[in-house]
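Exercise 7. Predict the structure of Amino acid transporter transmembrane domain-containing protein from Populus deltoides.
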Amino acid sequence: MFSMKVLLSDYTCFFFPSQCRAIQRSNCYHREGHKASCEYGDAIYMLLFGAVQILMSQIPDFHNMEWLSVIAAIMSFTYSFIGFGLGVAQVIENGTIKGSIAGVSAATTANKLWLAFEALGDIAFAYPYSIILLEIQDTLKSPPPENKTMKKASMISIFITTFFYLCCGCFGYAAFGNNTPGNLLTGFGFFEPYWLVDLANACVVLHLVGGYQIYSQPVFAFVEGWFSRKFPSSGFVNNFHSFKLPLIPPLHINLFRLCFRTVYVASTTAVAMAFPYFNQVLGVLGALNFWPLAIYFPVEMYFVQMKIGAWTRKWIVLRTFSFACLLITIAGLLGSIEGLISAKLG
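Solution. The predicted structure, encoded as tokens:
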């Protein structure tokens, strides 16, 4: 589970440079025309993202992240509405629905199959919140009971995210058909109004700063807690040093936290720079995460909690469901790995 959290926290490094580059490209297309060659590199933005996250990673824990979570949520709603609205506007402007029920065409049947498998991995990536569900629940106050609040929040969030996923995905494909980019805002799908596209991408950038921390804080807590228990007498691991700077509250610095979190951010940034492939990486991470954390462990815990006997009807149904999801995960992983290798070699 720890390695999966590390991998999932990498994903924001892939989005960040693409959004910053998209802002530059949007402005370039606006100045030079849609046929202009507006290409920009990724490395500088990945390094910038890593530098920002080194600072943000010094936030102690989830309980100190409320302000960042609020900002990230507002940004998420903003760029989702913009993407949805631009897709609808493009369909209206076209006067027709592009694409087909068969989806994007491929050179061979094998390529089509690999793309379908890769898409399964991307879909699996769409609902990865099970990794941080318990950590978020731990920050809630009672009454009412935390689990009841979290259950209600989960139902609402799943409904809202599914609505936006379907709307953006369906209207994006209806707007561009087989030419639909992997990321509507950066692909490059929308050119005008360029200022609105820039605003949406800027919102994604701010959202990702918080998103990285949401996925990384559980890793920080796990590693630092383990070292604290393993070396209770170590001053390097357990001691805090206070620093007072003008106009801000006192800073409490722990040397182990500073070193570990810096190395962690640097390593994830290096992985992102080595494999800067948007859809393929999302598919791999989604497949790795989906079955074990979203299906297998919850099903097994339900069996233990509810004392479900073997070979009962409920046991058979849930086992069948788990096995089917395992097959989907394997297919998504294979397709995404094939796409990643092809992109790397290409």
